[in-house]
Amino acid sequence: MLRTLARSSLRFAPRATMAPTMAPLTMMRLNHTLIKGSIPDKYSNKYTLKFTEDHDWVAFHEDGVAFIGITKYAAEALGDATFVEVEEAGNEIEKDDAFGNVESVKATNDIIAPFDFEVVESNFDVADTPSLINKEPNGNGYLAKVKPIEGAEETEGLLTAEEYDEFLKNAH
């Protein structure tokens, strides 16, 4: 069940995909690292950062926990976030199912699970303060801390930073 915590206005943005609102790649500053000192960065000393073609990032930590958020590219393309909905802890999410939603002045986008996982902890700070998605998308603006379900192919179809850059260049 999705938990709704904050809605900054009663106005709803129409459902849209992000592709039509994406700014030209040359205008974007590509930075594919977690913000130093952010919760996903401080969680452990070693993690592997991967990306999806839906413009999400996943930081896999050594103990099997992962953090999921949207990329800076996605945050800039969405514009000012006005509402964020995140899945509650304890729920199991299947690959390709929505586990959250981000509404902005430009669009409404479901956040799609890149692999099967259980939500360990939801980031309700981002639901309470949607602008955190824009200020720190690759840091404290993460959506959830998750644990891949045993046997799930968590890295299948995910991209390295270099592959994500190439994907962005070819998409425009």
Describe the structure.
Residues 65-147 form the Lipoyl-binding domain. This protein is 18% helix and 30% strand. With 172 residues, the protein is of the alpha+beta class. The chain has a single domain, classed as RNA polymerase II/Efflux pump adaptor protein, barrel-sandwich hybrid domain (OB fold (Dihydrolipoamide Acetyltransferase, E2P), Beta Barrel), CATH 2.40.50. The strands form 2 sheets. The chain has a 6-stranded antiparallel β-sheet with strand order 2-3-4-10-9-6. Strands 1-5-7-8 form a 4-stranded antiparallel β-sheet.
What's a quick, concise take on this entry?
This protein has helices at residues 39-42, 72-78, 124-128, 132-135, 161-171, and strands at 2-4, 47-51, 56-61, 66-70, 81-87, 92-93, 98-104, 108-112, 117-122, 144-148. With 172 residues, it is α+β, with helices and mostly antiparallel strands.
**What structural class is derived from the secondary structure elements?**
alpha+beta
CATH topology: OB fold (Dihydrolipoamide Acetyltransferase, E2P)
How far is it from the N-terminal to the C-terminal residue, by CA? 36 Å
Number of domains: 1
**Any guess at the CATH architecture?**
Beta Barrel
Write the CATH homologous superfamily. Answer: RNA polymerase II/Efflux pump adaptor protein, barrel-sandwich hybrid domain
Radius of gyration: 15 Å
- Compressed to H and E, one letter per element, the order equals EHEEEHEEEEEHHEH
Q: Strands across the major sheet, in which order?
A: 2-3-4-10-9-6
Identify low-pLDDT runs: 1-29
How many beta-strand segments?
A: 10
Tell me about the largest β-sheet.
Answer: 6 strands, antiparallel
Global outline: globular
Mean pLDDT, all residues:
83
Instruction: Estimate the helix proportion, in percent.
Output: 10-25%
Query: How many alpha or pi helices?
Result: 5
What proportion of the residues form beta strands (DSSP E)? 25-35%
